Amino acid sequence: SLYHKAAIESGAYSYWTAQPMQEAEQQYDDLLASTGCRIFGKLSCLLSLNAKRLLRISWFGLPPRRKPYGCPFAPTVDGVELQRLPWELRDEGRFNTQVPVLLGYNKDEGTLGIDLQPSLPGCKLYEKVSNMTAGDFARLLTGFQFWVDPARLPDVLDVYSVNSTDDYTNWYWVATHFAGDYAFSCPSRRTARALSKFSSSAVFLYYFAHTPRAKPFPFAGVRGRPDTAGASHASELEFVFMMTDPADPLAQHLIGDDEMLLSKTMAGYWINFARASNPNPLGGARDSTYTDLTIDWEPFKGGHEASIRLDLPRLSAMVGRDNRQCDLIDKLGVVSASLARAVPMTPVRIPQPAAVGRSLERETPLLV
């Protein structure tokens, strides 16, 4: 076996983690058009370009096309190295079922990317922050970003509305939680369910909820408003890896004894999982990885969907978190700009390119 344990953080088998061949081919055509290499000597022309220019174009220079799958760095289903979209294989149990898995997501994953493309209409709505309205959220849902069928708005607003949970304090946080649930939280739940169904090894699910005191992760929240980032995408990394050097440009360093303690606790869980396939202290003993915050981290199982909340001032055990939100998102119908018709979240059969010569089932995304 190539590996004996796996940790999957922030976006397990989400729609943006892979793309079919036709998406990659369109991205390549867009790249050629943006560089002027489309007419003669395409490959030699691209090879002659400055690497920094290519990198800049790959993120910001391509046409504002709505990509229903993948992202600029997502692997491609080419029919050779990757023959199916990963979540299809997951749902069929076609993966290494002998490997224990630790996976999870952060409370405010949906704040990622708001500042990445500030000219987009949806980003302008987010920039209103506490002045966002229910109408703004409805505009995001039915266009700009999520493409929800307008007839389903009441279903969404029944679950996602101000004060329907403690985290939904205004429409900005409602919208970012919807985005994070679709792109990160709910794919993690689907993955944990599939792994626990097919695998003979343990599955451990986490929920990181602490908002770091240091500067937010790049591209999280509204520019100049660190209070809009929350426990954003990748913010758990500084705790897992105990990033304590304020001079490190890649580290959103820890501040305060309690953050250091949370970091030591989380690092202990990850270390234990790496060496013994279980994040809990070995044999239940209070070894060097045990801290005053340590609690028992139960495995995720069918019928008992346990997870751990990583937060201050204390950690807590949870069962069935986000079920109402993810039940909605897993069933929700959306309007796909690429298909130009209403489709449900259940797999839709779409022809694969002739080079691969087979059909491809794929989930239809809400989020761009």
Automatic annotation (TrEMBL):
- A Pfam family of this chain: COesterase
Q: Which UniProt keywords apply?
A: Hydrolase
Read off the Gene3D superfamilies from this record: alpha/beta hydrolase
Q: Does the keyword Hydrolase apply?
A: yes
Q: Kindly give the InterPro entries that the UniProt entry links to this protein.
A: AB_hydrolase_fold, AChE-related_enzymes, CarbesteraseB
GO MF, any single term: carboxylic ester hydrolase activity
Task: Domain (Carboxylesterase type B): give its ranges.
Answer: 2-325
Q: Which family does it belong to?
A: Belongs to the type-B carboxylesterase/lipase family.
The molecule here is called: Carboxylesterase type B domain-containing protein
